[in-house]
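User: Hey, quick favor. My workstation is busy. Could you predict this chain's structure for me?
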Amino acid sequence: MADNAEMEGRPGSIWNHRIVRFLVPTLVLGITLLPILRAQLPPGADLAVHLARVFALNNLAHDADLSRFYSLNWEIYPNLAFDLLVWPLVQIVPLYMAGKIFVISSLLMMVAGVALIRRHYYGRVGYIPLLAVLVAYSAPVAIGLTNYYFGIGLAVLGTALWLQSENWLWHRRLFAMGVFSLVLFFSHLLVFCLFGLTLVLLRGQAFYKNRNMDLKKDGVLAGQFVIPAVLLTLIPSPTHGTETVFGPMIARLEAIVSPVLYFNNFDVVAGLCLIFLILWLALTRRLTIVSPMKFTVLFFIGLGLVMPVAILGIWLTHVRIPLLASLLLLATMKIDLPERGMRYLLVAVCLVIGLLKLEKVDRLIAACDIKKIDFIRSLDGMPRGARILPVIEDSAVTGDCLAGGYWHIPALAVIEKSVFYPQMFVTKWPIELKPDYRQFSQKKPRPVSPGVLRGNIEAIGEAKWNRAIAEKWRSEFDYLVWLHPGTKPQRLPENIREIKSGSFYTFYAIDRATR
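Assistant: No problem, here it is.
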C-alpha cells in the first residue's frame, strides 16, 4: 500500500488497472465492515442509549407509556448528528438497521476524507487511504461516541473541501464552508472546534511561510464560523459538571494506541507495533508529511498525547483527538521505499495486523451482540411501561461489552417495552424527564451501586442521585435489573424476588407490600 512507482505509478502496472483500483478498495472495505454487517445491533457501548433516545423521539407522540416519563425538549443543542440522521432513517428502515447505517457511514466518510486530501496534495488517491481501515474500529467506536466519530468523518471531508475550494470565488467558498461548518456544529461541538483549529493552523503555517495577508482567504476562514459562534452563545448551560482530570499514566498508553484500540490486549500490541513502524519510517526519511500540513499533523499528534482524561466534565477526551491525528497523518504522508522487498514487507505487516485485529473485533462484537439479543428476549414477560432500575455489582468483570456496554444494555428495554430507564441521556439532548422523574437524572449516567439500595449514599455514584435512589427506589421503581457479568449478585436487599436471570443479569421484582 506504499505510494511508489512500482505498485501505483508505473504505466501498465497491475495496480494501476481500472478494475484492480475498483476491486481492491471494495474488497478491503467490504471485509472491514463485516463485523457490523453480521451483527444484529450496531456496535458501541453507548449505542443502546442513543437508539433508545431516537426511539423515544419517534414514538413519544403516540406512546402513552413513554409520555408518562419523557417529553420533548428542543433547544439549540450541538452533538445531534445521531438524532437528526437516524430519526428520519427509522421512517424507512428498522431502528437497529438505521443505527448500523449511521456507524458504517461514519467509517466510510473517514476513508473518503483521507482519499480526497491525498488527491489534492498528490494528484491521485493511491492505496494508502485503505490504511484508514486500521483505525475503523477505534476507542471512540468501541465506547459508542457516535456523534464524535461521525463528526470526525465530516471534519476530514471538510478539510478536503477547504483545500479543494482554494481557487473558488470567495463568496461561493464562504457559502459552502459556512453551511458545512453549521452542519459540523450540530454534529459535535468538540469536533467543530477541532475543525476550526485545523483550518487556523493551515492558514497560520501558510502565512508564516509566505509572510503575506490574504483578506479574501482570511475573511472566508473567519466568516464561516460567524453563525455557529452566535449559536454557541445560545446553548443551554452544560449539566455534566466542570471536572477536569488528567488521569493516570496508563491513560497515556490508551491515548497512544486509541486509534486502533477496541479494548483487547492484541490492539495494544498492534498499536505499539504500528507506532514503532511509523517512527522507523520517519527517522529513516522513508516517511514524509506534505509540507503545508506538516505542522498541523504534528500539532494534533502532540495534543493527543497530553490531553486529560476529562476536560470541563467531558470525559474520555484523551482517546478522541488521536483519531483525528491518525487520519490527517494518513491523508498527508508519503512513503518512499525504493527496495521492492521492503515494500512487500510493509504491505504484509499491515495486512497481517489488519486481519488479526478484524478477527478479534468481530469476535468481540459478536459476543456482545449475543448478550444484547439474550437481554431483549428476556423482556418477553415484562409489562409495558414498567420502571426499571439498573444495578451493577461492584465486583463485576466487564470484558467483551466494556463497562459502559453492560451499563447501557438495559436501555434496550425502552425500545422493546417503553419502560422508564433512569440512565437515559437526557441532560443535553432533545428528550427530558417529566418533572416527577427529574430527581433521578444523572450528570454521568451509571447504574446504581448495590450499597445505595441498603442506604449507603456514600457508595459509588453521585451523592444527590444516590440519596434519591436510597430513599425512593422501593416506591418509584417496579424492577431491579441486576447486572453481574463475571460474578453473582451479592448482599441483596430484602423484599425483592427473582423472576428471571441470564448470563450477566438477573431481574428482581420489588415487593409492592413494602412500598
